[in-house]
C-alpha cells in the first residue's frame, strides 16, 4: 500500500540533499569547533558558514543567531532568559491563548515564582487583535511572546503590528516562528521582533536542532551553563552536523519559497472545497486566508477525530488531530476551544498538513475516501442518530 504523509506540521522528512550536506560532519569533518587544530577549524567553518546562511535568510546578523536543540529550547531560552535579565523591571508577560506548550508551560513555571501572565484572546477565526496586546501592557511588562503561525489551525498573526506596539513601548518581543520558517517569508526586521524561535525538523532539516534569533542589544540570561560556546550564550558542544543540515534545509526552502507555498495553498484549498462539498456538517477551523499554505484543520460534527485518524491510517493516510504533543491525551485542543468550538467539535477535528512531497493525487485520494469514513462513523454515532431523527421530524 502506498502511504500518504499529511502530517508535515508534526515533523518533516529530512531532504536527501540535507542528509548529503550533513554527511562529512559525521566523519572526516568530525572535529570539535572549539578546538584550535585543523580538525576543529574545519568544523568551525561549517558552523560559522551555517550561521551566516541562517542570518541571511532571516535578515539578521550572524552574531544574532544562537544555535539550540530545537524549538522548545529556543522558546524556553527566550522566556526564562528575558524574565531573568529584566527581573528588576517587572514580572509581567503577555502571550496568547493559542501558543504551543513550549511557550505556555515556561510561562506557567514563571507564574509559580510570582510572575503574572496575560493570555490575549483570539477571535473566532483564531486571530489576535494587536489592540488587545496593547491594552494588556503595564509598566511591569517585560516580554510579549506571540507565535507567528499556529501549529494546529495555521493562523498567521499580525506580528508586524504587534512588533510596532512593543517597539513603541520599549518591550522585548519574541515570536515562536517554528511553523512559519521555511514556509512563508520571515524577516526579523520587517516583523519588528527582538527574538525569534525556529526548528530545523519543521522545514526538512534534522530533528533536535534549532536556533534563537536575539537582536543585538537585547539582554538575556543563558539557560545552559558550562563552556563558552555560542559566545557564552549557550554552553554545550555544538551539534555541527545538525546545524549544517539546518542551513542546507533553509537554503533549499529559500530557493522555492513562493513556488512551494503557491503549490501547497492550491492543494489546501482544493482539499477544503472538496471535503466541504462532499461532507455535511464540516467546519473549517482557523482563518480562510490568513493561514499557512500547508495547513488544513476541520471539525466533523458527531464523530471523534481519533476514530477518523485510525480509519485513515488503515488506508495509508497519516494525519493528526491537532498537535502531536497533545494527541495522546484526551483533553480537547486548547486552540479549538479558544476559537469558540464546543467540546464535541474540538474532539471531532482533523489536521492535514502538506509539504514538499504532497501530490495532487494524494489530495484527490483523501477527498475520495474520507466521506465514506465519516459516513460510516456517523452511522455508529448515537448523537448523529438522535439529531437526524429530530431533523426529519421537523422537516
Ligand atoms: C514543533 C513546534 C515547537 C517545538 O519545536 P521542537 O523543535 O520540536 O522542540 C514549538 N512551537 C511550535 C509552534 C511548533 O510547531
From the structure above, extract its key features.
single chain, Aspartate Aminotransferase, domain 1, 2 domains, 12 strands, binds pyridoxal-5'-phosphate
User: How would you sum up the major sheet?
Assistant: 7 strands, mixed
Give helix % range. Answer: 40-55%
Ligand species: pyridoxal-5'-phosphate
Please work out how many helical segments DSSP would assign.
13
Topology, number of strands: 12
- Runs in which pLDDT lies below 50 for 5 or more consecutive residues are none
Q: Tell me the β content.
A: 5-15%
- Report the C-alpha radius of gyration, rounded: 22 Å
Distance between the termini: 44 Å
Strand arrangement, major sheet: 2-8-7-6-5-3-4
User: By helix and strand content, what is the structural category?
Assistant: alpha/beta
Order of helices and strands: EHHEHEHEHEHEEEHHEEHEHHEHH
Based on the coordinates given, report the CATH architecture of the largest domain: 3-Layer(aba) Sandwich
**Shape, principal axes of CA atoms:** globular
The total number of structural domains is 2
Level-1 CATH class name of the largest domain? Alpha Beta
Indicate the CATH topology of the largest domain. Answer: Aspartate Aminotransferase, domain 2
Question: What is the residue-mean pLDDT, rounded to a whole number?
Answer: 95
State the fourth-level CATH superfamily of the largest domain: Type I PLP-dependent aspartate aminotransferase-like (Major domain)
Overview of the structural elements:
This protein is α/β, with parallel strands linked by helices and 395 residues long. The chain folds into 2 domains: 4-11 and 257-394, Aspartate Aminotransferase, domain 1; 16-255, Type I PLP-dependent aspartate aminotransferase-like (Major domain) (Aspartate Aminotransferase, domain 2). Helix content is 42%, strand content 13%. The protein is built from 13 helices and 12 strands. The protein has helices spanning 16-22, 38-58, 71-85, 101-112, 130-136, 159-169, 240-255, 257-278, 305-314, 334-338, 343-347, 360-379, 382-394, and strands spanning 4-5, 65-68, 92-96, 116-120, 141-145, 172-176, 195-199, 210-214, 282-284, 295-300, 317-318, 349-353. A 7-stranded mixed β-sheet has the order 2-8-7-6-5-3-4, with helices on both faces. The chain has a 3-stranded antiparallel β-sheet with strand order 9-10-12. A two-stranded parallel ribbon has the order 1-11. Helix 4 (101-112) links the parallel strand 3 (92-96) and strand 4. Helix 5 runs parallel beside helix 6 (159-169). The radius of gyration is 22 Å and the shape is globular. Bound molecules: pyridoxal-5'-phosphate. Pyridoxal-5'-phosphate binds next to helix 3.
